[in-house]
Write a structure and sequence with these properties.
Elements: E1 3-8, H1 11-16, H2 18-26, H3 37-47, E2 52-53, E3 55-60, E4 66-70, E5 72-79, E6 82-89, E7 101-102, H4 108-121, E8 128-135, H5 140-149, E9 154-168, H6 178-190, E10 196-199, H7 205-219, H8 228-239, E11 247-254, E12 257-266, E13 270-278, H9 287-299, E14 305-310, E15 323-333, H10 337-355, H11 357-366
Parallel strand pairs: 6-8, 13-14
Antiparallel strand pairs: 1-3, 2-5, 3-4, 4-7, 5-6, 8-15, 9-14, 9-15, 10-11, 11-12, 12-13
Helix pairs in contact: 3-8, 4-5, 6-9
Length: about 375
């Protein structure tokens, strides 16, 4: 298949891609809810003021249908006083997964090579290609690394960022900590007698959303829902037509008050565990753990996967021992001094963390001494 590659840099052209973009996302072998057009478009509009669009679209030259795309934008920053232009995915931080979007049936290697070759031709527009939250479960992640390393004038660094856990919901497929889950299930079964009601996939989303947002901000002081730009993005996301049918809001209620809640997403295959919150007054009731088990039970009837996503709290491993990893891929020209300045602080920080310096300093400042056997 011959591919033609084009660059999208205007908001108007980005908006026109909506139907094609979502059709491509649905046609991927490893689709994710975060790949939908609404995530990238609304995030760019609300959270990317001053950044430039840099979306690379590869089409089937014969049919014109999109075969792959790289949802990128250009961010200008400074490192050690030196200006650096960073090409990165549009949705940063709030999306647990990002990647180049490649249609199922299209050769990943050819698609990735076409995109990277195009980026190389336009290397005068960027200094560093910084790709974060690219998951190991999609082979496209490793195709990018392999194709980039084939360019001998490029430097390629990969770092493991966060583990992610996914439970297979099909009967007999998951290996779980049965003892812990049995105890949580007993709590779940006892809730009605204690005046607590579990409601999964609430139909009155619009009514409950403001209360959930307030609870999440109280539970997590750094909640993105409490930040001006991110808050506007989420308000637009949940109101968008393209996300209708993909939203989940589930709660544990006590006398008309939310004791625990979860806001997440669903697609045809998976349920996504995204934003949990609980009222601290119900901490001893383990309402958060109970709601999570109710979610897993509910979606086991209609979905095949329950995705716990980034970070691996111990409670997630009670449900599964299937672990994937999110990667960061940093690519730049060998002789780029600006790229060197961009990466210097990050490399030094990671080196010191690996040596254990932050923990050693914390122990020194707090007067704590390591325990001796």
């Amino acid at each position: 298949m011959a591919l033609s590659v084009e660059l999208v840099t205007s908001v108007e052209a980005f908006e026109r891609l909506r139907t094609e973009w979502n059709e491509l996302a649905d046609a991927m072998e490893f689709p994710e809810i975060f790949y939908r057009w609404e995530w990238s478009f609304l995030f760019f509009r609300h959270c990317r003021a001053g950044d430039g669009l840099f979306i690379v679209v590869a089409r089937n030259a014969a049919t014109g249908r999109i075969a792959a795309l790289a949802p990128l934008c250009l961010r200008r920053t400074r490192s050690f006083g030196i200006g650096v232009t960073v090409a990165e995915t549009i949705v940063a931080g709030l999306a647990d997964y990002q990647n180049f979007l490649v249609r199922a049936g299209v050769h990943r290697g050819r698609a990735v090579n076409a995109i990277l070759d195009f980026l190389r031709v336009h290397a005068d527009r960027w200094h560093v290609l910084d790709l974060q939250q690219f998951c190991s479960r999609d082979p496209t992640t490793f195709q990018i690394v392999n194709a980039a390393q084939a360019h001998h004038d490029w430097t390629v660094r990969t770092h493991m960022l966060t583990p992610v856990a996914v439970r297979d919901l099909r009967p007999g497929r998951a290996i779980e900590d049965t003892g812990r889950l049995r105890r949580i299930r007993r709590r779940l079964e006892a809730l009605p007698a204690r005046g607590l009601e579990v409601r999964v996939a609430c139909s009155d989303f619009e009514t409950l959303w403001p209360a959930f947002r307030a609870l999440h901000i109280r539970t997590w002081p750094g909640s993105p829902l409490g930040r001006e730009k991110d808050g506007k993005f989420f308000e637009a996301l949940v109101a968008s037509e393209g996300m209708r049918g993909h939203l989940d809001l589930s709660v544990v209620m006590s006398e008309g008050k939310i004791a625990a809640a979860h806001f997440g997403f669903i697609d045809d295959r998976k349920a996504y565990y995204y934003m949990p919150a609980r009222d601290r007054a119900f901490r001893r009731d383990r309402v958060g753990a109970v709601l999570l088990l109710a979610l897993v039970d509910h979606y086991a009837k209609t979905r095949t996967k329950f995705d716990f996503m980034r970070t691996l709290g111990a409670y997630k491993t009670w449900y599964t021992d299937t672990i994937d990893v999110n990667y960061r891929i940093v690519i730049h020209a060998n002789a780029s001094f600006r790229a060197f300045a961009y990466g210097l602080f990050d490399v030094a920080r990671r080196f010191l963390v690996e040596l254990g310096l932050p923990r050693a300093l914390l122990r020194l400042l707090t007067g704590r001494r390591p325990a001796h056997r």
